[in-house]
Amino acid sequence: MTTKTGVASAGNLIMTGVLLMLLGDLLFALNDAMGKWLVASFAVGQVLVIRSIGAFIVLGPMILRQGPMALFRVEQKGLQFIRVLMATCDVALFYAAVAYLPLADVMTFYMAGPIYIAALSHFCLGEKIGWRRWLAVLIGFAGVVIALRPSTAMLSLPSLFGLAGSLAFALSLVMSRYLRSTSDTTLVTWQTIAALVTGIVLSIGHWQPATLIDWSGMLLLGIVASCAHLLITRSLKLAPASLLAPLQYTLLLWAIVLGYLFFNDIPDAQIIVGAAIIVVAGLFLFHRKNLKETVPVEAVPRDGH
Questions:
Q1: CA distance linking residue 242 with residue 233, whole number of Å
Q2: Vertex 23 angle, CA 124 and 30, to 5°
Q3: Considering Cα of 224, then 226, then 229, then 234, what sign does the dihedral take?
C-alpha cells in the first residue's frame, strides 16, 4: 500500500510540474509579445532595468518571507553563477534578436530548445532518452520549421543572437533542474539582479524618456516574466526536464493566438499543419515517458513557493 501511495504521489508531482510548465510557457509568450513591442522604441538595457524593477514587485514579499540572508546560503556556488549567467544571456540575447527580427523568426530558434534540453538532460542529468522519443523531438522541431518558415535573414548577427539565446535558455533550464535543492525565490532573485546590473551597463548613453504607458508596460513585463520564471523553475523540480522540454512547443500555439489578437496575424494552412505535428510529437513524448522515473517525493524541497 505504501508503494502504491508513493507512486501516486510521484505521479501527482509530475502532473503538477506539467501544468506549471504550461502556465509558465503562456506567460513567457505574453512576455515575448510585450518585449517585441517595447524594444521597438527603447534600448534593450533600459527595458531590462525597468523589467527587473517590476520583477521585484513579485519577488519582494517572497524574499522577506524566506529571509534575505537565505539568498546567500546556497550550495554549489559555481553552478549557481553559471546558471545566473545563462539566464541573463538568454533574456538579453532574446531582446537583442527580437529588436531586429520578426518574433516568428526568433521563436524558431527558441523552439530548438527542447532538443538541447533533451540532449543535455541525457548526458548531464542521467535522464535516459529512448530512440522513439529522440525521433519525436526531431519530428516536433521539423513541425516548428514548417510552421514558422525561417526568413532569409537566418545568418545575420541578430539570428546568431537568437541561436545563442536559445542555447543559453536550455542550459539555464537544465541547471534549474540540477539545482532543485535551492529555493525558487533564490534562483529567480539572483537572475533578476544579474539582469538589472546588465541592463544598467547596457543603458548607459541609451536612456530615453518614456510615457506612463511605456513605463507601465516595462514594469508589467517584469511582473509577467518573474511569474513565468517561478512557475517554470518549480516545474523543473517536480518533473524530469526531458519530459517538460517538449511542452515548450506550446509557445508556438500561444504565438499564433497572440499574433492574431495583438498583431492581427491570421495563421495559414502551413502554420496549422506545423502546429499539429508539434502537438502530436509532444503528446507522444508524454505518453512514452515512464512516470516512475522521477524525483522521489521526499526530494522535493518544501519551501512553500
A1: 14
A2: 105
A3: negative
